[in-house]
Design goal:
The complex is a heterodimer of chains A (298) and B (183). Chain A has 10 helices and 4 strands. Chain A is an alpha+beta fold and 298 residues long. Chain A folds into 2 domains: 106 residues, no CATH class; 156 residues, Zincin-like (2-Layer Sandwich), CATH 3.30.2010.10. In chain A, α1 crosses α2 and α6 runs antiparallel to α7. The radius of gyration of chain A is 22 Å and the shape is elongated. The two termini of chain A are 18 Å apart. By secondary structure, chain B is mainly alpha-helical. Chain B has one domain. Chain B is 79% helix and 0% strand. In chain B, α1 packs antiparallel against α2, α1 runs antiparallel to α5 and α2 runs antiparallel to α3. The chains are: A alpha+beta (298), B mainly alpha (183). At the A-B interface, α3 of A face α1 and α5 of B.
Chain lengths: 298, 183
């Protein structure tokens, strides 16, 4: 039965990724069309080929290079030194246990305990951990966290979560561009007050559409079910719920939200990188306490 | 009219049966291949270990010549690891694991050996391989479980033919109990 539910999960994640790509392509198409229409109405005919080219480039590169973007946005460096042999061994061991090729190991310089996985498929995947995680967690705890990330890779959560990260980052840039184009557009049509009003209205509407969609996407990518499932599959790999539970306990008491990462990638992480031991009220991630409780009851 | 209906129904049933046959034949084959792939993973680790051991023995010999008994045990288990049936090879590997434990315990008596960089590196590598063998064995056993499940439960068992249950790799008794630390 477990086998079926995992393959269901994999199929669902592939569908979500495809759906996301289609929706984003459509939105981008209309956005580019609008921008060209507003800025240079004479060239509206070539808007179609331009937006097609941009969309294909965007979709392909976020699929192909999304992991590179995410790794460099979080300042992750390859963990090649001999002192990280143990980390690489743990990653390789757990990937053997789950039957996927070994992901690449990356390191983030931070005292907080955290980790994430990214990539487009199990053959092209990476796991990044913080130096704080390596220095603080013992062997069983490390295995628990790595097992969680390996499960994200195996269940194909990573492609969807990476696509969302690239998209949310891009949405921020686009809304910035729109505001700018509004400014230049406004200067062009200075004599035409009505035009400015219409422009403002359209931009307002577009922003109003994008913002909640982006938030929704991040929330969906963060779905609690996904995290609980990864916790559970981690335990089925390590056969020891206590390890992951005590890793979460250490995180709850030691993390201080010291990681300097953008909102666009925060949903990828093992626990919310901005969260401190104090505030759990406004957390977007599943509450650590609840995760610990479930693990302790296994 | 009625013969047509019966004929049509028979045709539909035959098509369904053939499709099921294809599905389960492939499914069983895929799960069987997964066991073979899982064994290949174990094999890789056993060979890596096989290649590392002479270096380790040479390094230790340089400092602790008279521990002959342990060297012989290591050599015997090392050979057993790459010949014989899967069960025998895993058995040799398990023996090697405990022999290595006593070898490293012996090394504790030779401070110069313990401080040797090469020795430390080999020890780390061998421990890493031991863990990977354990993980690979876990994957092997879970693959065997999926295979055994499909060929023994309905409807998979109808299509399994004369296939029999695959054997699990047994886990040595000592690994099941928690390690006791003595001072």
């Amino acid at each position: 039965m477990a086998q079926t539910s995992f393959s269901d999960e994999i199929a669902k994640n592939k569908r979500s990724s495809l759906l996301l790509a289609i929706i984003v392509s459509l939105i981008l198409f209309f956005l580019i069309y609008f921008i060209i229409y507003l800025l240079i109405p004479e060239l509206v005919l070539i808007a179609l080929p331009i937006s097609t080219i941009i969309i294909i480039t965007y979709t392909y590169s976020s699929y192909r290079f999304g992991d590179t973007v995410v790794l460099s946005a979080t300042n992750a460096k390859p963990a090649q030194a001999r002192e990280y042999q143990y980390l690489r061994d743990t990653i390789e061991g757990l990937s053997i246990a789950s039957g996927i090729p070994p992901p690449k190991a990356y390191l983030i310089e931070s005292e907080d305990i955290n980790a994430f996985a990214t990539g487009r498929n199990p053959e092209n995947a990476s796991i990044a951990v913080t130096t704080g995680l390596i220095n603080t967690l013992n062997r069983q705890e490390l295995e628990g966290v790595i097992g969680h990330e390996i499960s994200h890779i195996k269940n194909r959560d990573i492609l969807f979560m990476t696509l969302v990260a690239v998209l949310v980052g891009l949405a921020a840039i686009i809304s910035h561009l729109i505001l700018r184009s509004l400014w230049f557009g406004a200067r062009r049509n200075r004599r035409d007050n009505n035009g400015i009003m219409i422009l403002l209205l359209i931009v307002g509407i577009i922003l109003a559409i994008i913002a909640p969609i982006a938030t929704r996407l991040v929330q969906y990518a963060l779905s609690r079910k996904r995290e609980y499932l990864a916790d559970a599959s981690s335990v089925s790999l390590t056969r020891y719920p206590g390890g992951l539970a005590s890793a979460l306990e250490k995180i709850a008491s030691k993390n201080q939200g010291r990681m300097n990462v953008s909102e666009a990638v925060s949903h990828l992480f093992f626990v919310d990188p901005k969260q401190t031991s104090l505030d759990s009220l406004f957390a977007t991630h599943p509450p650590i306490k609840e995760r610990i409780k479930r693990l302790r009851n296994m | 009219m009625i013969p047509w209906i019966i004929g049509g129904l028979a045709a539909i049933i035959i098509v369904i049966v053939v499709l099921l046959l294809f599905y389960y034949y492939n499914r069983i084959r895929i799960l069987y291949n997964r066991i073979e792939e899982a064994w290949a993973q174990i094999d890789v680790q056993l060979k890596k270990r096989f290649d590392l051991l002479p270096n380790l023995v040479e390094t230790v010999k340089g400092y602790a010549k008279h521990e002959k008994e342990i060297f012989e045990k290591v050599a015997k288990a090392r050979q057993g690891m790459i010949s014989g049936s899967r069960e025998e090879r895993i058995e040799s590997s398990n023996q090697l694991t405990s022999t290595l434990k006593s070898l490293f315990a012996v090394a504790e008596n030779y401070p110069i050996l313990k401080a040797n960089e090469n020795f430390k590196l080999l020890q780390e590598q061998l421990e890493g391989i031991e863990n990977k063998i354990a993980y690979a064995r876990q994957y092997y056993n879970s693959s065997v479980l999926s295979y055994n499940n499909i060929i023994t439960t309905i409807p998979g068992s109808w299509f399994a033919g004369n296939r029999t249950k695959h054997a699990f790799l047994t886990i040595p008794e000592e690994e099941r109990s928690p390690v006791k630390v003595k001072f």
